[in-house]
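wait is this the right file?? whatever heres the structure
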């Protein structure tokens, strides 16, 4: 059995998997305290992890119907993420590994998002292209095998998920607001307004200009107009984000000619982007993989599956392992 810990941001999570990669438990505790501030407060996130990590781990072991003595290795998110939040998970994992004299495995959070596809699709064909879209990251990954992947495109400023959440805040929605934009947009016209998309080199992205465009657009409108056309504005803004993502991803497909394409990260739950991504697969006659929603957002099951592959390859971390905040 392998125990996995995730504490990179505002989710405290633990998961257990067996040596065949079957997920036996996937427990998640979301930190609701950040909603009142309109974003994640790092210090509050760290404290919340400290308060809940033991309870979450105990629950994961109970659901998997095993005891801590059955755990043969422990995997933990090493980074990227908030340093204080990461330290809670890493130090817990170090203590557990030292106490039980079992291997400690540091996992890259970004690569774990990509490998989440292997939970339900262990026979996915390599190489594949993965569009990773979350609140903190937007990247195109060329995945050669579970242990070898390359970033071929990334955001130069804000992530797409951040553009959703900050756009939602401008529209008066609560945090996190990406799913609220998705809900309103379902009844709106995506061609209502043409929000500009930044043209940046290669397969990279930029969303800061799009946020600014929404801000200036809303400032020019009367409150009654915005309220009356809220669904159309949401649909147009969402369409711009989706188009920016998929235009560059389409270029990457043409160059790299993958055997399959995959969508990962919290924004993979967006209904409009999922639909457009599926259409892209049909256009290029490629198999499309999108994880279940519970494996799209930050979770420990993806850390478990990534940790399992590292463990089997003999990539074990020492007790001197340190967290990292950036993925380069």
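ok assuming it is, sequence goes like this
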């Amino acid at each position: 059995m392998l125990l996995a810990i995730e504490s990179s941001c505002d989710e405290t999570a633990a998961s257990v998997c067996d040596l065949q990669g079957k997920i036996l438990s996937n427990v998640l505790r979301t930190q609701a305290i950040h909603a009142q501030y309109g974003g994640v407060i790092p210090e509050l996130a760290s404290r919340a992890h400290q308060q809940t990590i033991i309870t979450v781990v105990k629950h994961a072991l109970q659901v998997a119907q095993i005891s801590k003595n059955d755990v043969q290795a422990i995997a933990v998110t090493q980074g990227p993420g908030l340093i204080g939040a990461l330290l809670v998970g890493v130090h817990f994992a170090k203590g557990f590994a030292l106490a039980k004299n079992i291997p400690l495995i540091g996992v890259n959070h970004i690569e774990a998002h990509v490998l989440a596809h292997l939970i339900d699709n262990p026979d996915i064909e390599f190489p594949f292209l993965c569009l990773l879209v979350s609140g903190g990251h937007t990247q195109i990954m060329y995945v050669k095998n579970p242990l070898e992947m390359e970033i071929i495109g990334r955001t130069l400023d804000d992530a797409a998920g951040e553009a959703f959440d900050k756009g939602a805040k401008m529209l008066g929605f609560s945090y996190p607001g990406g799913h609220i934009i998705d809900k309103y947009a379902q009844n709106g016209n995506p061609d209502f307004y043409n929000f500009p998309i930044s043209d940046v080199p290669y397969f990279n992205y930029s969303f800061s200009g799009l946020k600014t465009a929404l801000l200036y657009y809303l400032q020019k409108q009367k409150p009654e107009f915005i309220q009356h056309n809220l669904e159309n504005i949401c649909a147009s803004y969402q369409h711009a984000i989706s188009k920016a993502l998929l235009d560059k991803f389409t270029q990457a497909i043409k160059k790299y000619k993958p055997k399959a394409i995959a969508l990962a990260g919290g924004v993979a739950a967006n209904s409009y982007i999922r639909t457009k991504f599926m259409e892209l697969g049909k256009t290029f006659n490629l198999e499309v993989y999108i994880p279940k929603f519970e494996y799209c957002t930050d979770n420990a099951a993806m850390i478990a599956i990534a940790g399992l592959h590292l463990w089997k390859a003999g990539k074990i971390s020492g007790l001197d392992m340190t967290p990292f905040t950036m993925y380069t």
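DSSP finds eleven helices and ten strands in the chain. so i think its the right one actually
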